[in-house]
Amino acid sequence: MIKNMKNIINNINVVQWVSLITISLILSFFNSFALSVLNDGGWGTMNGTFTVRHLLLFIILFVLFSVASIFLIFVSRSFSSEKNEFKSGFFIKISTYFESPLKTALFLIIFWGVLLLPFFPVVSGWDIVGSMHEVIDTRSADFAKNIFNIYPIANYLTDGSTTMWTNQHGAFLTAFYGLTIKYSWIITKSYLPGYLFLGLFHFSFAVYAYTKAIVFFQKNINNLIIKIVGLALIIFNPMIFLNTISLSKNPLFVSSFVLFFVLMFEIYRSNGAVSKSWMINMFTAVFIGVVAVKWALYVYAIIALIYLVIYRKVALKPVLISMFLPIFLLKISLMVLVHQGVVLQDDPIESKGIQIQQIARYVHDDPSVLTKSEYQELNKIFDMNNIGNLYSPAISDPVKSSGGGNFTDTSKLGYRYRTVKKSDWKNFNKIWLSVVKRNPQIAIDATVAQVGSYVVPSRIPLADYALTMPSDTIGHGYGSMTDAKWTYHLYHNKVRTKAIEMVFKLFNNKYVGYLLHGNFWIVVLLLMVPAFMTSFSRFTLVLPAALQIAISAMSPLANSERYTLGIVSVMPFVLMLMVFSNKKKETNG
């Protein structure tokens, strides 16, 4: 084994060494120097942390991360050989069982179905409240009439418009959820049938995606140990099966991404030779993914562009039809709807999360860094008297004035969405850059506070996954709290309460909890990346998962479990894929 390890180290290429060292440096930095910011709830500073103690910790961690990454390269190469396969009749039977699509689907339906019974019929976060209230006519709460104020959209974008249909949580997903609930109410005078339909759709699509992925990987990966470990990480992870009935954008994207991921493996394994079935599945994965989350368009478009280069001679038409066509159709449709005033345009503040967090931290820590003219310019966009107090290292929503009821409290006003004009944003980037140049330390602290915990596995993520339904969706229409007690009890019973407690307890467990945490799997993914650097086409397999690390970091929340679900869900497949060897592909790039 030692001799084999030495041979593998000697065969590590330059690109692998560069990526290995770079990743280890980044991880070591955030798990040593950056802890001075993170350990204080994000309020700390890195100023004065470059001490001998921190430097020693940084060096030790760099060595450990480097060794871990080298070990994963060793696992990747040595476990890809059949001669190293662990033989066990019991495990072989399990693996063989999951090579059957029908048996796999039935197992997932029954096993996950039983585990999901306490959470019947569906779960969701507050996003669905917005989706419903933008479309339905009968609303269940007074503040629903002020939907623009809960998730603020600048009034210059809404004034004179008769529509309430926004692209805040994806225009097409909003329509799908909202119209389903609306017609459920019109036809049955209840929201429940609509939820049952949406829950069945989510669960069915998830089972289909995971079935296809599990079967394909069980058939095409040689190493039995890795196959069984990967299978267990998929089947028993509550973050995976709970989100199969979650009516939210991120869980729906996860199912599309799992399907997309296995299709990437298929085209890689076949060197570009794909079938009509592959094209239909890829079209479906891309279409649903882009409908689910807006940023999926960029992830899938990047991979599509790469495939045009890699497989242009053998799969040009399939890539154009199955990947570019759904992106084009959805993008053009949205542009037309926005242009016609049917859908409201996105507010520019949504793309400036980290920047506005930095500005708010400057106001909180050192407002004197702003000149009088800069202060006045920014005061047109933000209430500068408030944003310092509203600033939270963990979430950018307070500065954006987001949150039910906040619009009635002037002290909670951060973003001046009622009075801001498009022209007020003209100098924002210039002012931001000027301030950062004057005092980069505060900008660094704000950035570390916002993104750092995503690569520090010792930090327990924010448990922002849904395990119930907002009260706003189970009152009026869904079933009155007094007139339909059986409906009310679906979400208020001892079994459900106990199940929720068990999930949170497992999530916060200092041992098992790591396997559920998005930031743990982000670190594992980063350490795995060098193992995939043997060729560009092989690296492409993990690129979409790696891109989601950056997307998570730019989300409104620090260390959110919800924004890392895509990574959590495909990492068992990445583990199995790591030991797959396509020697012809890797020698030809």
TrEMBL record:
Record has Ion transport as a keyword: no
Coiled coil start-end: none
InterPro entries xref list: DUF6020 (IPR046062)
Superkingdom assignment: Bacteria
Segments passing through the bilayer: 12-35, 55-75, 105-123, 195-217, 224-245, 251-268, 280-310, 316-338, 511-533, 563-580
A Pfam family per the record: DUF6020
Record key words, sorted: Membrane, Transmembrane, Transmembrane helix
Keyword S-adenosyl-L-methionine applies: no
Protein name in the entry: Glycosyltransferase RgtA/B/C/D-like domain-containing protein
Classification of source organism: Bacteria, Bacillati, Bacillota, Bacilli, Lactobacillales
